[in-house]
Design goal:
heterodimer, A: 321 residues, alpha/beta, Rossmann fold, five-stranded mixed beta sheet, 12 strands, B: Rossmann fold, five-stranded parallel beta sheet
């Protein structure tokens, strides 16, 4: 069960602080928890973990492929490795290692890719993953999750310490808007309906959850009742919820800080087309590369704002027969 | 097949593995013959002597691990595991059969005795490092063995791992490079020559030896030597012949993956059977002489 804040504010605690603190807490009671990084310990905020558990923390240097392979080998010895790099280098650069050494070999590896999409900001196009979930989504058995705030991040990390399989966690490093109240807990594979509505469903993930909530309020003033779902699990996609939302609202907007090709919109469209086809408008990056800029500037540039979601919602509703 | 053999006995072990591997290939009419043949003496030295394993308990935690990173040599390893007692000989008929337990490339979840899934070249280096690190963390007194191809060493991941393993002083990691001088498209000297492989590993901080790679006694001695170095990983570069001991494959340019005729494989099996008889007699005389 989860509860949603009434007012949305940025959490003063960075996501990476929650990541590090939670892993330290887990590692205290589970000696198999390990952390790997590829020369980005300073960025991932994991220095306290590395200081506290020097034997269970490995800085692999700038060698991501080797890091993922080592994580798979450690898993074969019963370890539970969390391997971090920036999203680009934790996904597209090591796609084959994740596919073969981790997933095909049925290992238990957790890969954390930070700075999703426009949150990479000043690092620009080379470091701006609009494709990370997309390149990994065609790997069988992999779990893809994107927690939007500290509360869901912590809950998911605690679950991941116990679960089997390969998980990719798409995580903003810095301050996220708090969506969930402390004490909430979540089911991997099930979307969270944050706002009820009957005219259109907005499926969002990551930083787009807050944009979707803002869009829902704006639509309310136009007497449009928009349902908002935090679709934090991209794979496996929650087909049952998609079916229900299609039945209730008959139109969808998908909102992702990612390329619409192969991303959340694609996953929802694939599922909806199989169970209950409805008009779908996708808010996301329209098959473009990243570039430098502030997060706000980039959100406008790539049409990732609440007003883009509002416009998409109206288009989707218009397309209803 | 026991694992306490002397040098002459290891030649018998190797001859037995070669015969069974050829018989296995004969069932399907094609396969990665060249690279399977060249690594057989190493498998004989490992499973016939140096590698700590228990066929009755393949998941024994204290065992030595083997990562066959050149996963296409699976058929040679399957024959070895079969002769070592991991599974009955009928299972060898499952090579490359849909739904069977012996895929062309090694799969730890399909075949008893396989310690790591391999086949995408270069990745075994890193998974072997992970195994060796995990064993060290858990204070398991064992070795992790890794078999790389020479063509495989084109992969950058091999050298990422080579850097890592020496920096982290993985003294219980022992790698072999099957320097058979051929890769899929031809001779390594014509495709992407690795130069002096041992010198390259030395430059990365490894203890390195280059030895004749189709003599199990020499390989066994090299492994024993490698175990003396505890503060650095070791590599044994095996100067081998691709297709060794199989007339239709040995010395042939395109012997990485090949089709063969019934006549060719029958002749190869006959040769291997005769070789097995020959080394068996030698070993028998030798053992009598010793006693």
């Amino acid at each position: 069960m989860f509860t949603v804040h009434e007012l949305f504010e940025k959490n003063p605690k960075m996501m990476r602080e929650t990541y590090c603190e939670t892993l330290i807490d887990l590692a205290l009671s589970n000696e198999n928890i390990m952390a790997l990084d590829a020369d980005l310990v300073s960025s991932s905020g994991m220095k306290p973990f590395f200081q506290r558990f020097p034997d269970r923390a490995i800085n692999c240097g700038v060698a991501e492929a080797n890091m993922i392979g080592i994580a798979a080998g450690l898993s074969a010895m019963g370890k539970i490795p969390f391997a971090h790099s920036f999203g680009c280098f934790a996904s597209r650069r090591v796609c084959d290692q994740i596919m073969i050494s981790a997933a095909y070999a049925q290992q238990n590896v957790r890969i954390v890719g930070t700075d999703p999409g426009v949150t990479a900001a000043y690092n620009g196009g080379t470091h701006m993953p609009f494709e990370d979930m997309g390149v990994l989504r065609s790997i069988p058995d992999i779990f893809l999750i994107e927690p939007c705030d500290n509360v869901i991040l912590e809950d998911l990390l605690r679950q991941l310490a116990k679960l089997k399989g390969v998980y990719y966690i798409r995580m903003a490093r810095k301050n996220a808007v708090s969506i969930y109240k402390e004490g909430s807990n979540f089911h991997i594979g099930r979307g969270n309906t944050l706002v009820d509505g009957n005219d259109v469903t907005i499926f969002a993930s990551g930083i787009m959850v807050y944009e979707a909530l803002k869009a829902s309020s704006i639509l309310q003033t136009d007497k449009i009742s928009a349902r908002v779902v935090d679709m934090f699990t991209w794979k496996p996609i929650d087909t049952e919820l998609i079916d229900n939302c299609a039945r209730i609202t008959g139109a969808f907007v998908t909102a992702e800080n990612h390329n619409v090709v192969g991303g959340l919109g694609s996953a929802i469209a694939e599922a909806a087309s199989a169970v209950r086809p409805v008009p779908i408008e996708m808010v996301g990056v329209k098959d473009r590369f990243g570039q430098v800029g502030t997060e706000d500037w980039l959100k406008t540039e790539y049409e990732l704002t609440a007003s883009d979601i509002v416009a998409a919602a109206k288009r989707a509703i218009e397309r209803k027969q | 097949m026991s694992n306490d053999n002397n040098t002459q006995d290891l030649r018998v072990v190797a001859a037995g593995i070669r015969l069974v591997t050829l018989q296995t290939f004969a069932n399907i009419g094609f396969g990665h013959v060249g690279g399977a043949m060249s690594i057989i003496e190493t498998l004989a030295a490992l499973y016939g002597s140096e590698l700590k394993s228990d066929p009755k308990n393949p998941n024994w935690r204290e065992r030595d691990r083997l990562v066959m990173s050149k996963g296409h040599a699976g058929p040679a390893l399957y024959s070895t595991l079969c002769l070592r007692g991991y599974f009955p000989k009928e299972v060898l008929l499952e090579l490359n059969q849909g739904g069977g337990s012996l895929p062309s490339h090694c799969d730890m979840h399909k075949t008893p005795g396989i310690d790591m899934t391999t086949g995408s070249l270069g990745q075994g280096m890193s998974t072997a490092i992970g195994l060796a690190l995990g064993c060290r963390l858990d204070n398991i007194d064992n070795y992790t063995y890794l078999i790389l191809g020479d063509g495989e060493c084109n992969e950058g991941q091999v050298w990422e791992g080579a850097m890592f393993a020496s920096f982290h002083k993985l003294g219980k990691l022992i790698a072999f490079v099957d320097w058979n001088k051929q890769q899929l498209d031809g001779f390594t000297k014509d495709i992407l020559d690795m130069g002096d492989i041992a010198e390259k590993f030395k430059a990365f901080g490894w203890h390195a030896q280059t030895i004749p790679g189709n003599d199990p006694g020499i390989i066994k001695a090299a492994i024993i030597d490698a175990k003396r170095y505890t503060d650095a990983p070791s590599v044994i570069v095996l100067d081998t012949i691709k297709g060794y001991g199989c007339e239709f494959a040995e010395g042939v340019a395109a012997n990485h993956h090949m089709n063969f005729t019934q006549e060719q494989i029958d002749k190869a099996i006959d040769d291997a059977a005769q070789q097995l008889e020959y080394v068996r007699e030698l070993a028998s005389k030798n053992n009598k002489g010793v006693s």
